[in-house]
Amino acid sequence: MTKETISFVYVTYIASTPERVFEAITRADIARHYWGHENISDWEPGSTWQHIRDTADRTVELVGKVVEISPPRRLVLTWAAASQADDPDAYSRVTFEIEEYGDMARLTVTHDELQAGSAMANGVTKGWPAVLSSLKSFLETGRGLNVFAGPKATESRQPAGHRVEGAPS
């Protein structure tokens, strides 16, 4: 029986060039500033890539292969949690398409072949918007966002009768 797969597509416009956007994805020294991770590979078709947390322990969180690369317009990767690297069914695919759009770059990220209902599918639907917003912020302002932040507690999210410390009365 074939498992159901889903796709996630995210499009953003960045006041930058396709070259700078492509470098931000593929250069570890740039990615760590907006992603909190480094993408490590020699970026040749068939080569492996690793998504390594930019912390002292340098945890490899994601792995895959470079399927296709055409700088600065297109990059296609396979993608799996490092803990599932030995399971061929755990891999999904990410395609980065970058095009010049006036004085901007249009970045389309398509994450497909995701197993419906999987932890990976759940994670990427939350993760890509944060990471790509941070990429946009970094390229436009020089400052990435905290992609590991969570929602702040607000009075409206608290149970009835609960007062948030420091909130106006």
SSE order and pairing:
Elements: E1 5-14, H1 18-26, H2 28-35, E2 37-40, E3 48-53, E4 60-70, E5 74-81, E6 92-101, E7 104-115, H3 119-141
Antiparallel strand pairs: 1-7, 2-3, 3-4, 4-5, 5-6, 6-7
Question: If you had to describe this structure to a student in words, what would you say it looks like?
Answer:
It is a single chain. With 169 residues, the chain is α+β, with helices and mostly antiparallel strands. The chain has a single domain, classed as Alpha-D-Glucose-1,6-Bisphosphate, Chain A, domain 4 (2-Layer Sandwich). It is 24% helix and 36% strand. It has helices spanning 18-26, 28-35, 119-141, and strands at residues 5-14, 37-40, 48-53, 60-70, 74-81, 92-101, 104-115. It has a seven-stranded antiparallel β-sheet. α1 crosses α2 (28-35). The radius of gyration is 18 Å and the shape is globular. It starts with a strand and ends in a 28-residue tail after the last helix.
